[in-house]
Amino acid sequence: MNTSVVALKGVTRSFGGRSVLRGVDWRIGRGEVVGLLGRNGAGKSTLIECMLGLRETDAGIGGGNGENSITLFGEPAGDLSAAARARIGYVPQRSDLFEWLTPDQLLAYFRTLYPRWNDYKVENLLARWGFDPATRGQRIGRLSAGQQQRLSIIRALAPEPDLLVLDEPVASLDPVGRRDFLRELVDDVIERGTTVLFSTHILSDLERIAVDVAFLKDGRIALQAPLDELLEGTRRVSGDARALATLQLDQELGRVRHDNGAFSIVARLSAQESVRLLASPGVRLDPVSLEDLFEEVTR
Ligand SMILES: Nc1ncnc2c1ncn2[C@@H]1O[C@H](COP(=O)(O)OP(=O)(O)OP(=O)(O)O)[C@@H](O)[C@H]1O
Hints:
- This is ABC transporter ATP-binding protein.
- One of its GO terms (molecular function) is ATP hydrolysis activity.
- The chain is an alpha/beta fold and 299 residues long.
- The chain contains 12 helices and 16 strands.
- The chain has a 6-stranded mixed beta sheet, with helices on both faces. A 4-stranded antiparallel beta sheet has the order 2-1-6-7, covered by helices on one side.
- Strand 6 and strand 7 form a beta hairpin.
- The radius of gyration is 22 Å and the shape is globular.
- The model has no long low-confidence stretch (mean pLDDT 89).
- Adenosine-5'-triphosphate (ATP) binds next to helix 1.
């Protein structure tokens, strides 16, 4: 059975009368790796922070009860046990490291707070990610944004969390750093069955790892599916304008009217629909990229 590590029901959050989350229903199962996508300001950070009980929802910390609820490992997010808390690793969008400490001091401090701490992993990552003795002894406030982000990731991975939540973890990383990070993430998932949720704007990274993608749009999870399945089953349908104008597809994701009056429709197609469309004169089916999908779903 695939038990939910994260479960949200009817989660809402407004700022000054403006609704950002509008009743988010969402489940993330054990061992799933989910990339959370959405345009700037869609509410990804708000959703992540509400989910972790770090920010109030309209119903309070942890989403309230009954109709509006958030649970992590089956416990209410607003009232998590210390044991459940220790199972969660979080890398926020903005560095929350104590800037006056050195990396070594910071890691030594956090080591005391967790029941589990993988020293081998920490040393290995520090060495691989460019933390030489001088860098390890320097004040964190003086490190570059990318070095701070790497340290934040190492700190989150060290206690071997069962749920890892990362808010744009690679935004400040160079391409090599991003690749190393993704490799580490994949290894962790394979070795330990870690459940991972991360938000990102770098779509090419998602295409390199087997993930589910979830799109946040208009305050709800508009679509979630395994990325390969989504790309495999989605097509841009174009061609004869009259034929397409009246075309009804079960899972239309977006429809664009071009300057010349022609249409193109992006839709998830069943096998029967594909066969039917391919047999229609003047209709073309083309594959779409994740970028196309992002544009259509979040339009
Ligand atoms: N404390 C706050 N007060 C008022 N509005 C806020 C506050 N925090 C967030 N918002 C608003 O909520 C919306 C969602 O913000 P959020 O940071 O969650 O988006 P995001 O999807 O993470 O964006 P990005 O991709 O740019 O990081 C934005 O319009 C933002 O201005």
